[in-house]
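Hello again,

I reread your note about wanting to compare the complex against the isolated chains. To keep things tidy I'm splitting this into two emails, and this first one only covers the full assembly. Below are the input lines as submitted, including protein chains and any nucleic acid or small-molecule components. They are followed by the predicted structure of everything together. The single-chain runs will come separately.
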Amino acid sequence: MASGQEHPVVRVMNLSKSFEDKSVLRDVSLEILPAETMVIMGGSGCGKSTLLRHMIGSLYPDSGHVELLGQNINDLAEEQLNELRLKFGILFQSGALFNSMTVGENVALPLREHTDLDEQTIQIMVKIKLEQVGLRESIDVMPAELSGGMKKRAGLARAIALDPEIMFYDEPSAGLDPVTTAEIDQLITDLAKKLGVTTVVVTHEMASAFRIADRMAILDQGHLVKVAPKAEFEALRSSAATGDQAMDTIRQFLRGESQGPLTARRSSTGYEDDILSVV
Amino acid sequence: MNEQKRQASVLQLIGRKFLNGLSSFGGTVILLGSTIRWSWRALWQRRKRKGHSALATQIVRFGVRSLGIVCLVQAFLGIILALQMAPALSPWGQQDKIANIIGVAGFRMLGPIFTAVVLSGFAGASIAAELGSMVVAEEIEALEAHALNPIRFLVVPRVVATFAMLLALTVIADLMISLGGYLTSLVVLGPRVSAMYWQRMQDQLRLRDFVSGLVMAGVFGLLISLIACHQGLRVRGGAEGVGRATTNTVVYSIVGIIAAACVFTAIFYVFGF
Ligand SMILES: Nc1ncnc2c1ncn2[C@@H]1O[C@H](COP(=O)(O)OP(=O)(O)OP(=O)(O)O)[C@@H](O)[C@H]1O
Ligand SMILES: [Mg+2]
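Full-complex prediction:
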Protein backbone atom coordinates (compact mmCIF):
# COMPACT_ATOMS: atom_id res chain seq x y z
CA MET A 1 0.00 0.00 0.00
CA ALA A 2 2.82 2.39 0.83
CA SER A 3 3.98 2.70 -2.76
CA GLY A 4 5.61 6.04 -2.06
CA GLN A 5 4.04 7.68 -5.11
CA GLU A 6 0.52 7.96 -3.82
CA HIS A 7 -0.36 11.40 -2.61
CA PRO A 8 -1.26 11.27 1.09
CA VAL A 9 -4.93 11.95 1.82
CA VAL A 10 -4.19 13.46 5.20
CA ARG A 11 -0.91 15.19 5.81
CA VAL A 12 -0.01 16.80 9.12
CA MET A 13 3.07 19.01 8.83
CA ASN A 14 5.11 20.09 11.87
CA LEU A 15 2.01 20.79 13.88
CA SER A 16 2.37 22.48 17.27
CA LYS A 17 -0.36 23.63 19.60
CA SER A 18 -0.51 25.03 23.11
CA PHE A 19 -3.53 25.88 25.25
CA GLU A 20 -2.61 28.92 27.32
CA ASP A 21 0.81 27.89 28.64
CA LYS A 22 0.35 24.20 28.22
CA SER A 23 2.00 22.68 25.19
CA VAL A 24 -0.20 19.83 23.91
CA LEU A 25 1.21 18.98 20.47
CA ARG A 26 4.86 19.48 19.60
CA ASP A 27 6.05 19.32 16.03
CA VAL A 28 3.80 16.46 14.97
CA SER A 29 4.10 15.23 11.38
CA LEU A 30 2.05 12.39 9.96
CA GLU A 31 0.93 11.20 6.55
CA ILE A 32 -2.01 8.95 5.87
CA LEU A 33 -2.31 7.27 2.49
CA PRO A 34 -5.43 6.55 0.43
CA ALA A 35 -7.62 3.72 1.74
CA GLU A 36 -5.24 3.18 4.64
CA THR A 37 -6.34 2.74 8.24
CA MET A 38 -4.14 4.66 10.65
CA VAL A 39 -4.61 4.10 14.36
CA ILE A 40 -3.33 6.79 16.71
CA MET A 41 -2.74 5.65 20.27
CA GLY A 42 -1.57 7.27 23.44
CA GLY A 43 -2.39 7.73 27.10
CA SER A 44 -5.31 9.78 28.36
CA GLY A 45 -4.82 13.49 27.87
CA CYS A 46 -1.82 13.13 25.57
CA GLY A 47 -3.49 15.16 22.82
CA LYS A 48 -5.13 12.60 20.56
CA SER A 49 -8.45 14.38 20.29
CA THR A 50 -6.61 17.66 19.85
CA LEU A 51 -4.69 16.20 16.91
CA LEU A 52 -7.93 14.93 15.39
CA ARG A 53 -9.55 18.35 15.81
CA HIS A 54 -6.72 19.88 13.83
CA MET A 55 -7.22 17.34 11.07
CA ILE A 56 -10.86 18.35 10.62
CA GLY A 57 -10.11 22.06 10.78
CA SER A 58 -11.96 22.79 14.01
CA LEU A 59 -8.77 23.90 15.77
CA TYR A 60 -6.19 26.18 14.25
CA PRO A 61 -2.52 25.27 14.81
CA ASP A 62 0.00 27.60 16.46
CA SER A 63 2.48 26.51 13.81
CA GLY A 64 2.57 23.94 11.04
CA HIS A 65 -0.44 22.99 8.95
CA VAL A 66 -2.79 20.22 7.86
CA GLU A 67 -3.50 19.11 4.29
CA LEU A 68 -6.59 17.14 3.35
CA LEU A 69 -6.86 15.72 -0.17
CA GLY A 70 -3.96 17.94 -1.20
CA GLN A 71 -5.40 21.21 0.14
CA ASN A 72 -3.98 23.13 3.05
CA ILE A 73 -7.08 23.49 5.20
CA ASN A 74 -5.56 26.26 7.28
CA ASP A 75 -5.45 28.49 4.19
CA LEU A 76 -8.97 27.80 2.98
CA ALA A 77 -11.83 30.26 3.25
CA GLU A 78 -14.87 29.03 5.19
CA GLU A 79 -16.79 28.19 2.01
CA GLN A 80 -14.02 26.09 0.52
CA LEU A 81 -13.42 24.36 3.83
CA ASN A 82 -17.14 23.56 4.00
CA GLU A 83 -16.99 21.98 0.55
CA LEU A 84 -14.10 19.85 1.74
CA ARG A 85 -15.97 18.98 4.93
CA LEU A 86 -18.65 17.20 2.90
CA LYS A 87 -16.01 14.69 1.87
CA PHE A 88 -15.13 13.56 5.35
CA GLY A 89 -17.03 12.27 8.34
CA ILE A 90 -16.15 12.34 11.99
CA LEU A 91 -17.31 10.35 14.96
CA PHE A 92 -16.79 12.45 18.09
CA GLN A 93 -15.66 10.94 21.36
CA SER A 94 -19.06 11.66 22.95
CA GLY A 95 -21.09 10.99 19.82
CA ALA A 96 -22.03 14.70 19.72
CA LEU A 97 -25.60 14.07 18.61
CA PHE A 98 -27.87 17.08 18.30
CA ASN A 99 -29.89 16.65 21.47
CA SER A 100 -32.91 18.57 20.22
CA MET A 101 -33.50 16.12 17.36
CA THR A 102 -34.41 12.44 17.21
CA VAL A 103 -31.81 9.91 16.12
CA GLY A 104 -33.41 9.73 12.68
CA GLU A 105 -33.38 13.52 12.29
CA ASN A 106 -29.72 13.58 13.32
CA VAL A 107 -28.83 11.20 10.52
CA ALA A 108 -31.13 12.98 8.08
CA LEU A 109 -29.71 16.42 8.77
CA PRO A 110 -26.63 16.25 6.50
CA LEU A 111 -28.77 14.73 3.76
CA ARG A 112 -31.42 17.46 4.09
CA GLU A 113 -28.93 20.27 4.18
CA HIS A 114 -26.41 19.14 1.59
CA THR A 115 -28.28 17.08 -1.00
CA ASP A 116 -31.30 17.61 -3.21
CA LEU A 117 -32.82 14.26 -2.32
CA ASP A 118 -36.56 14.20 -1.71
CA GLU A 119 -37.91 13.38 1.72
CA GLN A 120 -38.81 9.78 0.86
CA THR A 121 -35.32 8.95 -0.37
CA ILE A 122 -33.85 10.60 2.69
CA GLN A 123 -36.00 8.42 4.96
CA ILE A 124 -34.80 5.31 3.13
CA MET A 125 -31.17 6.43 3.40
CA VAL A 126 -31.60 7.12 7.11
CA LYS A 127 -32.95 3.61 7.69
CA ILE A 128 -30.09 2.07 5.72
CA LYS A 129 -27.47 3.96 7.73
CA LEU A 130 -29.13 3.15 11.04
CA GLU A 131 -29.43 -0.52 10.09
CA GLN A 132 -25.69 -0.55 9.37
CA VAL A 133 -24.99 0.44 12.98
CA GLY A 134 -27.82 -1.70 14.36
CA LEU A 135 -30.04 1.13 15.52
CA ARG A 136 -32.99 1.01 13.15
CA GLU A 137 -35.52 0.55 15.98
CA SER A 138 -34.26 3.72 17.66
CA ILE A 139 -35.03 6.00 14.74
CA ASP A 140 -37.60 8.08 16.68
CA VAL A 141 -35.79 8.11 20.02
CA MET A 142 -34.26 11.27 21.46
CA PRO A 143 -30.50 11.11 22.10
CA ALA A 144 -30.97 11.69 25.84
CA GLU A 145 -32.70 8.31 26.07
CA LEU A 146 -29.81 6.39 24.47
CA SER A 147 -26.98 4.63 26.26
CA GLY A 148 -23.41 5.84 25.68
CA GLY A 149 -22.70 3.08 23.21
CA MET A 150 -25.90 3.70 21.26
CA LYS A 151 -25.07 7.42 21.05
CA LYS A 152 -21.76 6.56 19.55
CA ARG A 153 -23.34 4.26 17.00
CA ALA A 154 -25.94 6.88 16.10
CA GLY A 155 -23.11 9.39 15.70
CA LEU A 156 -21.42 6.94 13.39
CA ALA A 157 -24.57 6.61 11.29
CA ARG A 158 -24.70 10.38 10.95
CA ALA A 159 -21.01 10.56 10.08
CA ILE A 160 -21.39 8.14 7.17
CA ALA A 161 -24.64 9.66 5.90
CA LEU A 162 -22.94 11.45 3.02
CA ASP A 163 -20.65 8.51 2.14
CA PRO A 164 -17.40 10.26 3.04
CA GLU A 165 -14.00 9.60 1.46
CA ILE A 166 -12.21 10.06 4.77
CA MET A 167 -13.44 8.98 8.20
CA PHE A 168 -12.13 10.16 11.53
CA TYR A 169 -13.04 8.24 14.65
CA ASP A 170 -12.36 9.49 18.18
CA GLU A 171 -12.41 6.43 20.44
CA PRO A 172 -15.14 4.57 18.57
CA SER A 173 -15.22 1.69 21.03
CA ALA A 174 -14.42 3.25 24.41
CA GLY A 175 -17.06 2.22 26.92
CA LEU A 176 -18.69 -0.41 24.69
CA ASP A 177 -19.11 -4.08 25.46
CA PRO A 178 -16.76 -6.51 23.66
CA VAL A 179 -19.31 -7.71 21.13
CA THR A 180 -20.45 -4.23 20.15
CA THR A 181 -16.80 -3.21 19.98
CA ALA A 182 -16.10 -6.03 17.57
CA GLU A 183 -19.13 -5.03 15.52
CA ILE A 184 -18.00 -1.41 15.30
CA ASP A 185 -14.49 -2.54 14.40
CA GLN A 186 -15.97 -4.69 11.66
CA LEU A 187 -17.94 -1.73 10.36
CA ILE A 188 -14.85 0.47 10.33
CA THR A 189 -12.89 -2.22 8.49
CA ASP A 190 -15.72 -2.76 6.00
CA LEU A 191 -15.92 0.92 5.18
CA ALA A 192 -12.16 1.09 4.81
CA LYS A 193 -11.60 -2.08 2.82
CA LYS A 194 -14.77 -2.45 0.77
CA LEU A 195 -15.38 1.21 0.00
CA GLY A 196 -11.78 2.41 0.16
CA VAL A 197 -12.46 5.01 2.84
CA THR A 198 -9.27 6.47 4.26
CA THR A 199 -9.53 6.00 8.01
CA VAL A 200 -8.01 7.65 11.04
CA VAL A 201 -8.87 6.09 14.38
CA VAL A 202 -7.92 7.39 17.80
CA THR A 203 -8.18 4.72 20.45
CA HIS A 204 -6.56 3.15 23.44
CA GLU A 205 -8.30 -0.18 23.15
CA MET A 206 -5.37 -2.39 22.23
CA ALA A 207 -7.35 -5.34 20.88
CA SER A 208 -9.40 -3.09 18.70
CA ALA A 209 -6.34 -1.18 17.48
CA PHE A 210 -4.57 -4.34 16.36
CA ARG A 211 -7.74 -5.56 14.66
CA ILE A 212 -8.32 -2.58 12.40
CA ALA A 213 -4.94 -0.92 11.86
CA ASP A 214 -2.77 -0.95 8.76
CA ARG A 215 -0.32 1.36 10.43
CA MET A 216 -0.13 2.73 13.95
CA ALA A 217 1.20 5.88 15.54
CA ILE A 218 1.97 6.46 19.20
CA LEU A 219 1.56 9.88 20.71
CA ASP A 220 3.33 10.59 23.98
CA GLN A 221 3.63 13.95 25.71
CA GLY A 222 2.77 15.76 22.50
CA HIS A 223 5.34 13.94 20.34
CA LEU A 224 4.71 11.20 17.81
CA VAL A 225 7.20 8.68 19.13
CA LYS A 226 6.68 5.93 16.59
CA VAL A 227 4.79 5.52 13.32
CA ALA A 228 5.02 2.09 11.74
CA PRO A 229 3.09 -0.77 10.13
CA LYS A 230 1.06 -2.90 12.50
CA ALA A 231 3.42 -5.87 12.17
CA GLU A 232 6.25 -3.87 13.71
CA PHE A 233 4.16 -3.06 16.76
CA GLU A 234 3.09 -6.69 17.07
CA ALA A 235 6.74 -7.72 17.06
CA LEU A 236 7.61 -5.04 19.60
CA ARG A 237 4.81 -6.09 21.88
CA SER A 238 5.96 -9.71 22.03
CA SER A 239 9.68 -9.02 22.31
CA ALA A 240 11.52 -8.78 25.63
CA ALA A 241 12.60 -5.52 27.25
CA THR A 242 15.87 -4.22 25.83
CA GLY A 243 16.69 -1.31 28.12
CA ASP A 244 16.06 1.16 25.29
CA GLN A 245 13.97 3.78 27.09
CA ALA A 246 11.78 4.78 24.13
CA MET A 247 11.01 1.24 22.99
CA ASP A 248 10.34 0.06 26.53
CA THR A 249 7.89 2.91 27.01
CA ILE A 250 5.95 1.90 23.92
CA ARG A 251 6.10 -1.74 24.92
CA GLN A 252 4.68 -0.99 28.33
CA PHE A 253 1.85 0.92 26.72
CA LEU A 254 1.08 -1.82 24.19
CA ARG A 255 1.01 -4.47 26.89
CA GLY A 256 -0.88 -2.32 29.36
CA GLU A 257 1.49 -3.12 32.21
CA SER A 258 1.55 -1.22 35.47
CA GLN A 259 5.35 -1.44 35.87
CA GLY A 260 7.73 0.25 33.45
CA PRO A 261 9.23 3.51 32.27
CA LEU A 262 5.81 5.14 31.70
CA THR A 263 4.74 4.78 35.31
CA ALA A 264 8.25 5.41 36.64
CA ARG A 265 8.19 8.77 34.87
CA ARG A 266 4.95 9.69 36.55
CA SER A 267 6.00 8.92 40.11
CA SER A 268 9.68 9.89 40.14
CA THR A 269 9.54 13.63 40.38
CA GLY A 270 9.74 15.37 43.74
CA TYR A 271 7.20 13.33 45.70
CA GLU A 272 8.89 13.94 49.06
CA ASP A 273 9.25 17.67 48.46
CA ASP A 274 5.64 17.82 47.45
CA ILE A 275 4.49 16.11 50.62
CA LEU A 276 6.78 18.11 52.88
CA SER A 277 5.81 21.45 51.36
CA VAL A 278 2.31 20.99 52.74
CA VAL A 279 3.49 20.94 56.34
CA MET B 1 4.08 44.04 51.39
CA ASN B 2 0.88 42.14 51.79
CA GLU B 3 -1.11 45.33 51.41
CA GLN B 4 0.71 46.10 48.18
CA LYS B 5 -0.01 42.64 46.89
CA ARG B 6 -3.67 42.98 47.73
CA GLN B 7 -3.88 46.30 45.91
CA ALA B 8 -2.15 44.81 42.89
CA SER B 9 -4.57 41.90 42.82
CA VAL B 10 -7.55 44.21 43.14
CA LEU B 11 -6.23 46.24 40.23
CA GLN B 12 -5.67 43.04 38.32
CA LEU B 13 -9.21 41.94 39.04
CA ILE B 14 -10.64 45.25 37.85
CA GLY B 15 -8.44 45.09 34.77
CA ARG B 16 -9.53 41.57 34.01
CA LYS B 17 -13.21 42.41 34.49
CA PHE B 18 -12.80 45.40 32.21
CA LEU B 19 -11.06 43.40 29.48
CA ASN B 20 -13.65 40.67 29.85
CA GLY B 21 -16.47 43.15 29.43
CA LEU B 22 -14.74 44.70 26.46
CA SER B 23 -14.26 41.34 24.76
CA SER B 24 -17.91 40.45 25.42
CA PHE B 25 -18.98 43.73 23.88
CA GLY B 26 -16.68 43.33 20.88
CA GLY B 27 -17.70 39.72 20.39
CA THR B 28 -21.38 40.63 20.49
CA VAL B 29 -20.89 43.36 17.89
CA ILE B 30 -19.05 40.94 15.62
CA LEU B 31 -21.84 38.42 16.10
CA LEU B 32 -24.35 41.10 15.08
CA GLY B 33 -22.38 41.56 11.86
CA SER B 34 -22.35 37.88 10.96
CA THR B 35 -26.00 37.49 11.94
CA ILE B 36 -26.99 40.26 9.56
CA ARG B 37 -24.90 38.73 6.81
CA TRP B 38 -26.40 35.28 7.26
CA SER B 39 -29.97 36.57 7.56
CA TRP B 40 -29.45 38.49 4.35
CA ARG B 41 -28.21 35.38 2.61
CA ALA B 42 -31.07 33.30 4.00
CA LEU B 43 -33.54 35.81 2.57
CA TRP B 44 -32.31 35.18 -0.95
CA GLN B 45 -31.79 31.48 -0.60
CA ARG B 46 -34.25 29.22 -2.33
CA ARG B 47 -33.92 26.15 -0.15
CA LYS B 48 -35.15 27.15 3.25
CA ARG B 49 -37.57 24.54 4.51
CA LYS B 50 -35.39 23.80 7.54
CA GLY B 51 -34.97 27.42 8.56
CA HIS B 52 -38.71 28.04 8.62
CA SER B 53 -39.61 25.30 11.01
CA ALA B 54 -36.68 26.16 13.28
CA LEU B 55 -37.92 29.75 13.41
CA ALA B 56 -41.49 28.78 14.19
CA THR B 57 -40.37 26.52 17.02
CA GLN B 58 -38.33 29.26 18.59
CA ILE B 59 -41.09 31.85 18.40
CA VAL B 60 -43.65 29.57 19.94
CA ARG B 61 -41.29 28.54 22.70
CA PHE B 62 -40.35 31.99 23.93
CA GLY B 63 -43.58 33.74 23.11
CA VAL B 64 -46.09 31.47 24.72
CA ARG B 65 -44.00 30.88 27.79
CA SER B 66 -43.46 34.53 28.58
CA LEU B 67 -46.90 35.84 27.60
CA GLY B 68 -48.54 35.31 30.98
CA ILE B 69 -45.72 36.88 32.95
CA VAL B 70 -45.56 39.88 30.64
CA CYS B 71 -49.30 40.50 31.06
CA LEU B 72 -49.08 40.18 34.82
CA VAL B 73 -46.06 42.47 35.18
CA GLN B 74 -47.53 45.13 32.91
CA ALA B 75 -50.90 45.13 34.64
CA PHE B 76 -49.10 45.63 37.97
CA LEU B 77 -47.13 48.51 36.48
CA GLY B 78 -50.36 50.16 35.36
CA ILE B 79 -51.81 49.80 38.85
CA ILE B 80 -48.65 51.13 40.52
CA LEU B 81 -48.47 54.16 38.24
CA ALA B 82 -52.11 55.02 38.78
CA LEU B 83 -51.86 54.71 42.56
CA GLN B 84 -48.64 56.71 42.74
CA MET B 85 -49.68 59.50 40.42
CA ALA B 86 -53.20 60.04 41.75
CA PRO B 87 -52.21 61.70 45.10
CA ALA B 88 -49.63 63.86 43.36
CA LEU B 89 -52.19 65.11 40.85
CA SER B 90 -55.19 65.49 43.14
CA PRO B 91 -54.26 68.88 44.75
CA TRP B 92 -54.71 70.39 41.29
CA GLY B 93 -57.81 68.39 40.57
CA GLN B 94 -56.00 66.74 37.73
CA GLN B 95 -56.47 63.13 38.73
CA ASP B 96 -57.90 62.28 35.35
CA LYS B 97 -54.47 63.06 33.85
CA ILE B 98 -53.14 59.74 35.07
CA ALA B 99 -54.25 58.36 31.71
CA ASN B 100 -51.90 60.78 29.95
CA ILE B 101 -49.02 59.79 32.17
CA ILE B 102 -49.64 56.08 31.91
CA GLY B 103 -49.97 56.45 28.15
CA VAL B 104 -46.64 58.17 27.64
CA ALA B 105 -44.67 56.27 30.29
CA GLY B 106 -46.19 52.94 29.32
CA PHE B 107 -45.97 53.12 25.55
CA ARG B 108 -42.60 54.82 25.37
CA MET B 109 -40.74 53.22 28.21
CA LEU B 110 -42.28 50.79 30.69
CA GLY B 111 -43.91 48.59 28.07
CA PRO B 112 -40.78 47.87 26.07
CA ILE B 113 -38.32 47.90 28.99
CA PHE B 114 -40.16 45.57 31.32
CA THR B 115 -41.15 43.22 28.53
CA ALA B 116 -37.50 43.07 27.55
CA VAL B 117 -36.45 42.40 31.14
CA VAL B 118 -38.95 39.55 31.38
CA LEU B 119 -37.77 38.16 28.06
CA SER B 120 -34.12 38.38 29.05
CA GLY B 121 -34.99 35.98 31.84
CA PHE B 122 -37.08 33.69 29.65
CA ALA B 123 -35.50 33.77 26.21
CA GLY B 124 -32.05 35.13 26.99
CA ALA B 125 -31.21 32.75 29.80
CA SER B 126 -32.61 29.74 27.99
CA ILE B 127 -30.79 30.57 24.75
CA ALA B 128 -27.50 30.95 26.60
CA ALA B 129 -28.01 27.73 28.54
CA GLU B 130 -29.03 25.82 25.45
CA LEU B 131 -26.15 26.98 23.25
CA GLY B 132 -23.75 26.61 26.17
CA SER B 133 -24.70 22.99 26.67
CA MET B 134 -24.38 22.44 22.94
CA VAL B 135 -20.80 23.71 23.13
CA VAL B 136 -20.07 21.42 26.07
CA ALA B 137 -21.57 18.40 24.28
CA GLU B 138 -19.40 19.08 21.19
CA GLU B 139 -22.59 19.75 19.21
CA ILE B 140 -21.32 23.05 17.81
CA GLU B 141 -18.16 21.37 16.62
CA ALA B 142 -20.26 18.62 15.07
CA LEU B 143 -22.34 21.21 13.22
CA GLU B 144 -19.21 22.79 11.82
CA ALA B 145 -17.77 19.42 10.89
CA HIS B 146 -20.96 18.83 8.89
CA ALA B 147 -20.38 22.10 7.07
CA LEU B 148 -23.32 23.74 8.83
CA ASN B 149 -22.62 27.23 10.06
CA PRO B 150 -23.74 27.63 13.69
CA ILE B 151 -24.61 31.27 13.11
CA ARG B 152 -26.97 30.53 10.28
CA PHE B 153 -28.25 27.41 11.93
CA LEU B 154 -28.60 28.44 15.56
CA VAL B 155 -28.10 32.18 15.99
CA VAL B 156 -30.21 33.59 13.15
CA PRO B 157 -33.47 31.82 14.06
CA ARG B 158 -33.06 32.77 17.73
CA VAL B 159 -32.33 36.41 17.00
CA VAL B 160 -35.20 36.72 14.54
CA ALA B 161 -37.57 34.96 16.93
CA THR B 162 -36.62 37.10 19.93
CA PHE B 163 -36.90 40.26 17.84
CA ALA B 164 -40.36 39.36 16.55
CA MET B 165 -41.52 38.15 19.95
CA LEU B 166 -40.49 41.31 21.69
CA LEU B 167 -42.37 43.46 19.18
CA ALA B 168 -45.53 41.41 19.58
CA LEU B 169 -45.27 41.24 23.35
CA THR B 170 -44.71 44.99 23.58
CA VAL B 171 -48.00 45.64 21.82
CA ILE B 172 -49.70 43.39 24.34
CA ALA B 173 -47.75 45.07 27.15
CA ASP B 174 -49.02 48.49 26.06
CA LEU B 175 -52.55 47.18 26.25
CA MET B 176 -52.07 45.59 29.65
CA ILE B 177 -50.48 48.60 31.31
CA SER B 178 -53.31 50.81 30.08
CA LEU B 179 -55.82 48.27 31.28
CA GLY B 180 -54.13 48.09 34.69
CA GLY B 181 -54.40 51.86 35.02
CA TYR B 182 -58.01 51.81 33.92
CA LEU B 183 -59.04 49.13 36.39
CA THR B 184 -57.36 51.05 39.21
CA SER B 185 -59.18 54.23 38.34
CA LEU B 186 -62.43 52.30 38.07
CA VAL B 187 -62.10 50.58 41.43
CA VAL B 188 -60.07 53.04 43.52
CA LEU B 189 -60.07 56.51 42.02
CA GLY B 190 -63.74 56.84 41.23
CA PRO B 191 -65.95 57.41 38.21
CA ARG B 192 -64.72 60.95 37.48
CA VAL B 193 -61.29 59.57 36.59
CA SER B 194 -62.35 56.33 34.97
CA ALA B 195 -65.00 57.90 32.76
CA MET B 196 -62.40 60.19 31.18
CA TYR B 197 -59.65 57.55 31.10
CA TRP B 198 -59.73 56.35 27.49
CA GLN B 199 -60.57 59.80 26.16
CA ARG B 200 -57.58 61.33 27.93
CA MET B 201 -55.30 58.62 26.67
CA GLN B 202 -56.49 59.13 23.11
CA ASP B 203 -55.90 62.88 23.38
CA GLN B 204 -52.40 62.35 24.65
CA LEU B 205 -51.03 59.55 22.52
CA ARG B 206 -49.63 60.08 19.05
CA LEU B 207 -48.51 57.40 16.65
CA ARG B 208 -44.91 58.30 17.44
CA ASP B 209 -45.33 57.33 21.08
CA PHE B 210 -46.31 53.87 19.96
CA VAL B 211 -43.65 53.65 17.23
CA SER B 212 -40.79 54.86 19.41
CA GLY B 213 -41.68 52.18 21.94
CA LEU B 214 -41.61 49.54 19.22
CA VAL B 215 -38.27 50.79 17.91
CA MET B 216 -36.84 50.37 21.38
CA ALA B 217 -38.42 46.94 21.71
CA GLY B 218 -36.78 45.88 18.46
CA VAL B 219 -33.40 47.08 19.65
CA PHE B 220 -33.86 45.28 22.98
CA GLY B 221 -34.78 42.10 21.12
CA LEU B 222 -31.54 42.19 19.14
CA LEU B 223 -29.60 43.06 22.26
CA ILE B 224 -30.94 40.21 24.39
CA SER B 225 -30.65 37.54 21.74
CA LEU B 226 -27.18 38.54 20.58
CA ILE B 227 -25.83 38.76 24.12
CA ALA B 228 -27.38 35.37 24.90
CA CYS B 229 -26.03 33.70 21.76
CA HIS B 230 -22.59 35.17 22.29
CA GLN B 231 -22.42 34.16 25.93
CA GLY B 232 -23.69 30.69 25.09
CA LEU B 233 -21.28 30.08 22.25
CA ARG B 234 -18.25 31.22 24.20
CA VAL B 235 -18.86 28.78 27.05
CA ARG B 236 -15.76 26.87 28.08
CA GLY B 237 -15.37 24.25 30.74
CA GLY B 238 -18.50 22.27 31.39
CA ALA B 239 -21.61 22.86 33.45
CA GLU B 240 -20.05 25.64 35.49
CA GLY B 241 -19.40 27.60 32.32
CA VAL B 242 -23.04 27.18 31.29
CA GLY B 243 -24.21 28.58 34.61
CA ARG B 244 -21.92 31.56 34.29
CA ALA B 245 -23.16 32.20 30.75
CA THR B 246 -26.81 32.33 31.83
CA THR B 247 -26.06 34.67 34.72
CA ASN B 248 -23.94 36.93 32.53
CA THR B 249 -26.65 36.99 29.89
CA VAL B 250 -29.30 38.26 32.28
CA VAL B 251 -26.98 40.81 33.91
CA TYR B 252 -25.52 42.14 30.66
CA SER B 253 -28.97 42.20 29.04
CA ILE B 254 -30.55 44.27 31.78
CA VAL B 255 -27.68 46.74 31.83
CA GLY B 256 -27.76 46.86 28.03
CA ILE B 257 -31.52 47.39 27.96
CA ILE B 258 -31.44 50.32 30.36
CA ALA B 259 -28.41 51.88 28.67
CA ALA B 260 -29.95 51.51 25.22
CA ALA B 261 -33.24 52.95 26.51
CA CYS B 262 -31.35 55.99 27.80
CA VAL B 263 -29.50 56.49 24.52
CA PHE B 264 -32.64 56.12 22.42
CA THR B 265 -34.69 58.38 24.65
CA ALA B 266 -31.99 61.04 24.28
CA ILE B 267 -32.01 60.62 20.51
CA PHE B 268 -35.81 60.81 20.34
CA TYR B 269 -35.71 63.90 22.55
CA VAL B 270 -33.13 65.67 20.41
CA PHE B 271 -35.08 64.98 17.22
CA GLY B 272 -38.41 65.82 18.85
CA PHE B 273 -39.78 62.35 18.11
N1 LIG C 1 -9.95 23.73 24.44
C1 LIG C 1 -8.98 23.42 25.34
N2 LIG C 1 -8.54 24.37 26.19
C2 LIG C 1 -7.56 24.08 27.09
N3 LIG C 1 -6.98 22.89 27.21
C3 LIG C 1 -7.37 21.90 26.39
C4 LIG C 1 -8.40 22.11 25.41
N4 LIG C 1 -8.59 20.96 24.74
C5 LIG C 1 -7.72 20.07 25.28
N5 LIG C 1 -6.99 20.63 26.25
C6 LIG C 1 -5.93 19.97 27.03
O1 LIG C 1 -5.07 19.32 26.12
C7 LIG C 1 -4.70 18.04 26.60
C8 LIG C 1 -5.00 17.00 25.56
O2 LIG C 1 -6.39 16.86 25.44
P1 LIG C 1 -7.06 15.82 24.45
O3 LIG C 1 -8.53 15.93 24.59
O4 LIG C 1 -6.50 15.99 23.10
O5 LIG C 1 -6.56 14.45 25.08
P2 LIG C 1 -6.86 12.98 24.61
O6 LIG C 1 -5.55 12.39 24.23
O7 LIG C 1 -7.92 12.95 23.58
O8 LIG C 1 -7.35 12.30 25.95
P3 LIG C 1 -8.50 11.19 26.16
O9 LIG C 1 -7.88 9.89 25.80
O10 LIG C 1 -8.79 11.26 27.62
O11 LIG C 1 -9.64 11.56 25.30
C9 LIG C 1 -5.44 17.83 27.89
O12 LIG C 1 -4.51 17.99 28.94
C10 LIG C 1 -6.48 18.89 27.93
O13 LIG C 1 -6.61 19.38 29.25
MG1 LIG D 1 -9.87 12.40 23.49
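For quick reference: Chain A touches chain B at residues 53, 56, 58, 78, 82-83, 85-86, 90, 92-94, 96-99, 109-110, 112-114, 155, 158 (CB under 8 Å).

B.
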